[in-house]
Amino acid sequence: MEWFMYVLRHTFDYSGRARRLEFAWFIWVYEASSWLIWFFAKVMFALHLPDIADAANFINSALDILLLLPLMSVTVRRLHDLGCSGWWQSLLVIVNTFMSTLTFMPNEIVEQVYSSKEGETIVTINIVIIFAYFLYLTFKDGQPFTNQYGKSPKYSVLNKYS
After folding, report:
1. Mean pLDDT across the chain
2. Total structural domains in the chain?
3. Is the pTM of this model over 0.85?
4. Burial bucket for residue 142 (CB in 10 Å: 0-12, 13-18, 19+)
5. How far apart are CA 10 and CA 17, in angstroms?
6. What is the 3-state secondary structure (H, E, C) of 5-71?
7. Among 39, 42, 94, 102, whose Cα sits 20 to 30 Å from the Cα of 54?
8. Phi then psi for 51, rounded to 5 degrees?
């Protein structure tokens, strides 16, 4: 949770580099909370409580919007750690915007999207893209040397203790 709060405190910091741990903790806390709210909404819808389900979907959408800037910030810094431009996160923003748009829709429309073959395919492809992107950013080790974005956060910490 400490890393999650660290990312929130550095929401407007788009320079420098982010370690895998910083990125991973933020993503996993963010995704876990999002999936829990989503699951709660689905349970409420199954229990024929659509108003509560819509409220939960609204809360989930609000969470997506509130955490968009910290997500973008930590993603830019993580890409910097890999030696890449922060603009590579544009793929994530486009896909995430599509997925977030679905949560703003009433449950009946979302159910229609998921029940159609085309809608299910598009949603599945989007989820796979996001998941693969996050896995890459989570597990790919950053550059061990100083790059154009700054010193390595991992190896500069290790050198302090050597």
Report:
1. 86
2. 1
3. no
4. buried
5. 12
6. HHHHHCCCCCCCCCCHHHHHHHHHHHHHHHHHHHHHHHHHHHCCCHHHHHHHHHHHHHHHHHCHHHH
7. 94
8. -65, -40
